Amino acid sequence: WGLQRYGIPYFQESMPAHRATPTFWQTLFLRLFFLQNMALLCAAAAIASFFRPPQRWPTRALAVLAVLLAALARIATPDMALDSIVRPDAVHFGAAAKQLITNASLLIPTGPFQLPARTLPGASLVMCLTQWMQPQSLTAGIWAIWISSLLAAFLAYQLGKQLNARLGGITAAFMILLSPLHAYYSRQLMSDIPWGALTLASAFLLCSTPSRPWKAVLSGLLLGLGLLFKSSHILIAAAILLAWALHNRFSMRAFLPALA
Description:
By secondary structure, the chain is mostly helical. 69% of the residues lie in helices and 3% in strands.
């Protein structure tokens, strides 16, 4: 309510016109909608706990229902993705994936020239997993983004379970599955969803390496691959590696992910 009453009018009055794009407002409203939904869900859970203890809730049935609803909410056909495509980045992601499948090249035809895409190639490489089904389509890679979104929820569950038992896993997965912001980007040809899944996979492998150092090496490799998606990933990688080194008191095993 506070954001609606005071925050949005403030942004409308003070933000420069060239920055107040439709995408900015859409993202802002999605974040607001997410916060409202989370507050309502927490309130509903608190009220329900008075009538039935959480230990007696049908967690499996609730989890299956949430996954099915989230999967349906994230589905976007190539035509739907093309209709709502984010320019120019999504166009370059799709064009690069198309070029990789049809011509084994990352160069995009631009008039009489073949020019490199303005985006990093990570998302386009992921989109190639489904781009082959419709090689000439600009948006066939949307199915790979959809799969990545569900994989991110699964990895969040595994990571939360590793850190705080089953309840932590369910909470982490629900925070992703019930997020309208995550659902929105799952229907766009953007790098955010596969990048997030890759980061979660790396963090999960690091948290489950007590007796298997090869997982730390694999985690380091995944962290490195994250740089193919976003240049700012270097900050995430540094934070994860520092936390891992502190946890292991800077032992030799702590440096395996960094070496990888």
